[in-house]
Write a structure and sequence with these properties.
- The complex is a heterotrimer of chains A (about 250), B (about 325) and C (about 290).
- Chain A has ten helices and ten strands.
- With about 325 residues, chain B is mainly alpha-helical.
- Chain B has two domains: about 300 residues, ABC transporter involved in vitamin B12 uptake, BtuC; about 25 residues.
- Chain B starts with a helix and ends with a helix.
- In chain C, strand 1 and strand 2 form a beta hairpin.
- In chain C, helix 1 crosses helix 9 and helix 5 packs antiparallel against helix 8.
- Classes of the chains: A alpha/beta (about 250), B mainly alpha (about 325), C mainly alpha (about 290).
- Chains in contact: A-B, A-C, B-C.
- At the A-B interface, helix 2, helix 4, helix 5 and helix 6 of A face helix 7, helix 8, helix 9, helix 10 and helix 14 of B.
Chain lengths: ~250, ~325, ~290
Amino acid sequence: MYLATKQLTKQFGGLHAVNEVDFTVEKGKINAIIGPNGAGKSTFFNLISGVHKPSSGQVIFKNVDISNLPSNKIAKLGVARTFQTTNLFEKSTVFENVIVGHRLRTNSNLFDAIFRTKRLQQEEERSKEKALEVLDFVGLTKSAERVVANISQEEKKRVAFALALATNPEIVFLDEPTAGVNPDETEELSSLIVKMKERGITVCLIEHKMQMIMEMADKIMVLNYGKKIAEGTPNEINNNEQVIEAYLGRSASA
Amino acid sequence: MPKKFEKYIVIFFIVLAIIFPLITQNDYYIHIMTLAFIWSIAVYGLNLLAGYTGYLSLAHAGFFAIGAYAVGLLTVKIEMGFWVAFILAPIITAVIGFFIGIISLRTKEHYFAIYTLCVGYVIYLIIDKWDSLTEGVRGLMGIPAPANIGPISFTTPLSQYYLVLAILLLVIFIIYRIINSLVGRTFIAIRNSEPLALSLGISTIKNKLLSFVLSTFFAGLAGALYASFVRFLGPDIASTAITFDLLMYLIVGGIGTLFGPIVGTTLIVWISQNLQFLQDYRMLIFGPLLTILIIFAPRGIMGIIGDWKVKSSEKKRNKEAQKSQSELKKEA
Amino acid sequence: MEILIQQLFNGLTIGSIYSLVALGLTLVYGILHIPNFAHGAIYMIGGYITLTMMTYVGVNYWISIAVSIIVVGVLSVLMERLVFHPLRNTIIINNKIAAIGILLFLEALAQLIWGADFRQMSSPYNQVLNLFGVTFTVQRLLIIVAAIVVMVLLYLFLKKTFIGRTIIAMSQNREGAFLVGINANKVAMLTFFVAGALAAIAASLTSPINLVFPGMGHLVILKAFVIIIIGGMGSIPGAILGGYLLGFTESIGATYISGDYKDIIAFILLIIILTIKPNGIFAKGEH
C-alpha cells in the first residue's frame, strides 16, 4: 500500500464531514475523488495533508502513520498539495513566487542570511534552478518575469502547480485544479496533470468536471455526505447505481 | 529602471546623510535627524514582522521601552559600563520577546493584534507603577552618553548623529540581507498564506517566532540608542501612542518595502517639525492620512513607486512583444 | 461584609458601562468581522456631545443624551461607509490600521474642539442615598437601571423586529443571509448606528461619575476587547456577562489586591485566556 486511509473520520460539532473512509491511492496513477457539493472532499484532503487532525482513523503513507503530523512535516515526506484558491503573492513575479517552494529542502538559517554564507548562496542557486525547472515543466518559462497580478487565472493555477512541484513531491493532491478556468484551458491543465503522472508523480485530485475525470482518471472514489459510496475505474463508476442516485437525487431536490 | 540606477540613488542618499550635518551646521536639525534615524530602526523591526510576515504587533513601543529602560537601569542603577549595557539591552529585549512571542503567536489575526495591544499596555503599566525600579512617572534620569571608544567620543550632537547613522545603515543592510534570502522569502510566504506555507513544508511556528524576536531585537536596539541619546526616560515611551506613531511612519513610507521605514519616518518627523504650530493636533492631518493611504495606497510611498515600476516594465514587455511580432510579420 | 456589598455595587456600575461598550463592539464584529479599534473614540465623542449639550446649549440631561445618540450613531455610520466599506475585500491587517487612523483623528479633533483638560459633567442625580449600609449616588443607580433597560430594548429590537432579526441572521451566516436577499449594506450601516448609540449612552451615563477627556476611551475599549474575547467574539450574551464579570473582578480586585494595579486585571485575564485557548473561549471547530 502506498498511501491509504483507514476508517478516516472527521467530526465538526456533531456533523460527520468525513465518515469512516477507507481509501488507497494507487502509486503512479491519477486518482480522483468526486462527489456532490459538501460531500466532504476538501475535508478529506485536509485530513491527509495535515490541515485538520482526524477525529478517528488513520492516514498511512509508505507504512508510516502520518495522521497526527503537522502539514509542514507531511510536505517534507514528499506529499504536496494545491488549494482551490492559489494564494500567490500578487505583487511579485512568477519566478520569485516559486523559489520558496524548494525551501523545505534547504537548511539556511538567519546566520547564513546575514553573512551570505556559501551554504546560503548554494541553496539559493539550487532553489532558483528548481524554480526554473518546474516553471519549464508547467510551461511558464516565458512568463517567469511577469508579475502575478498581471497573469491569467489559468496561469496562476500553473504557478500553484509549479510551487507544489518545487517541493520535490512523490505525490500531489490537487484541490479542484481547474475551478474557475474556461473549457479550452481546462484541457491544457488536464494534459499537464497527465504529464505529471508520466513523470512518475502520483496524482490525487478533487474535481467537479465529470468529463475531464472520466477521461483521465485511473481510479475514482465517490464521496456522499462524508461516506465513501463507490470506488473503482471510470467505467465502474459510470454504471454504479448509488452514484447515479447521489447525483440525480441531489439535483432533483435542488 | 535598471538595477544600477537604483544603486546610484541609494549611494546618493547615503552620501547626503553623511554630509547633511556639514550642510546645515544646525545642532537642532542634527538632533531631529538623529531622532528620526532612531525611530527608523524601531520601524524596521515592525516592518519585518507586520510588513514581511503579516503579523501586526501593537506592543512595539513596549519593546522599544524595554530596550531603553534596560540601558537606563543597567547604567544608572547598577552602574554597568555603557557599552556592555548597550549590547545587553537589545538582547534582553529579544529574550523577553522570545517568551512573549511563543505565547502570542499561538493567536492569529485580530486576536494577535488585540493580544499584543494588551501586552503593550501591561508593559506600560509596569513601567508606570513599579516606582522603586523605574522611578515611574518621575522618570529615569542621569543616563550616560555613549562612552568613548578609544579616541572617539560621543558627547557632541555631531558624533552622536554619525553613531546612530552608522547603526541605522548596518540595520538596513542586515534587513536587506534577510529579506532577500531564503529566510526572508519564508517570511513572505507566511504573510501571503499560512496554509500554503505549511503545505510547502515551512514551519510557520518557528519562522514567525524568528521574525517576532528579530522585530523586538530592533525595537530594543532603537530603545537603547534613544536612552543614550535623550538620557531621560518616562513611561510614555511605552504607550500605545508611540506604537501608533511607528505604525504611521511605516504605512506612509511603505509597509513591506525595504526603504519604506526610513522614508516614512524621516518624512513624517520633518513634516511634524514644520507643523509645530499644530503640535497636539497633528493627528488631525496624519490620522485621516493613515486611513486614506490604507484605502488607496496600502503600500505607501515606496509601494506607489514599486507599482509604477511594474507598470512601466509591463508596458515595455508589451511593446517588445509587439515589436517582435511585427518583425516576424516582416520576415514572413 | 459591607465593604464587599459596596464593592459589588460598584462592580455592577462599572460592569454596566463595560457591557454597553462591549455590546457595540461585538455586534460590529459579528456582522463585519472587524475589530473596531476606533470604537473607544466614538465612546469619547459621545461623552463630549452630551457634555456640550448640557453646558453650552443648556438643555437637560436626557435631551443631551438623545442628541449624543444621534450624532454619534451617524458618525459611526459614516465611518462604516467611508472607511470599512471600501476596505471590505482587502487583507485583514488594513482594517485595523484604518481604524487606528480614525481613532487618532477623532482624539485630535476632540482636543482641538474641547481642549485636553479633564472636564466634569454635572448630573441632576447627584443625591446620595444610603440603603442597607451601602452608600451611593442616584447616578450610579441610574447607570445600573438604564443599562438594563437599554439591554432589554436591544433584545426586543434584535428578536422582535424584522430588521433586528436580519442583523442576527447575518452575524450567524453571512453567505446564507445574502442568499435570502438581505441587504448587507443596510444591515452593516444599521449595526454601526446601534453600536455608536450604545457607546454614546455608556459614555453619557458614566461621565457624571468619571471625567470627560480625549483619552477617556483608551482603557474602556481595551477592556471591551478583553470582554468580547472572554465572551466570544460576536456573541451578545457573552458581551453582557463578560462586562459584568470584569466589572465585579475589578472592583473586588481594587479593594483586596491593589488599587494601583486594578486596570491590569483585565489584561492579565486576557493573556491567561488566550494563552490557554488561542482562538478564544468559545471558538467554533477548527475553522
